[in-house]
Amino acid sequence: MSAGAESINPGLSVVMIGRNEATSLRQAIIPALQLADEVVFVDTGSNDSSAALAEALGARVFFFAWCDDFSRAKNFAVEQARHDWILNMDCDESIDVRQARKILQEALSREDEQAYQIRIDNVRDNGDCLPSSALRLFRNDKRIRFANPIHESVGESLYRHWPDRRPPELPLRLMHWGYSETSTAEKTDRNWRVLQQWLEREPENIFANFKAGQTLRGKGEIAEAATRFGRAFHQLLQDPQRGTYPYWPDLVQQYLECLMATGSGAEAAKVQSLVAVL
User: I need a surface site. Which of 32, 174, 195, 266 has the fewest CB within 10 A?
Assistant: First the structure.
C-alpha cells in the first residue's frame, strides 16, 4: 500500500498499530484525521478487513509481522510518519476534536518541549472510567523511540537524552473503549505471555518486575505479586534517581498493600522505615 516516510514536514502524524480492529477503526481514525495531517496504521497480522477499512477511511497502511514486541511494531509505525510531531493512539481510542484542536495547536508550537503526557480515560463495561496518563505526544526525532516489548514507552529515550526535562501533561483526553470484559481477558492473557518472555530475557528488569507485580495482583496472585514488587523495590532503592521514575510512588504503595494482604506486617514496617529516611 503506502510507501515509507520520505521527509519530515511540519504537522502532526497519528500512528497506531493493530490486529483485527475493524470494529474500532472508524471511531479512532475519523476524528484523528480531523486533527492530524495523516494517520499511519500498521497492521500486525489481521485476518479481518482492518487494513482495507483503514485505507478506505484515509489512513496510510503498512504491514508488520508480529513478533511479540510492541515497541518494534510501534517504532516501525513511527518510522513511516511524515510530520514532525507524533500522537500515538490505540485503535480502540478516540479523541474529542473540538477539545483537542486548540490544545494541540498551542502545544505543537512550543520549541522547548520534546513530549507531553496525555490523560487516558479507560471506559469499563459498567460505565466506570479509570483515568491514567501516558507519554503519547512527542517529536518525530530519531532519538525518541519506544522501549520494552510490552508496556512500551518513549520515556526511557526521553530521560536518556533530556534527563532534566519532565514532560508536562496536556489538558487533552483520549477515550479508551477497549476494556470490555471479553477483550480485557484476551489482552491480559496476551500481555502476560509477552511479559513472561521479557522476564525470561531480563529477570532483573525493574519495570518488567513492577508490571508483573501489577498483573499478578490483578489475577489475585497476591503473594507472587509481592515477590515481584519486592524485587523491583529493592533494586530501585539503590538508585539515587529513584524519584525521577514516575511509577516509584505506585510501586511503594502496591508493595506495601500486598505485604499487608499476605500478613507480612513486619516486612511492610521495614519498607515504610526505608522509604521514610529517603
Answer: 266
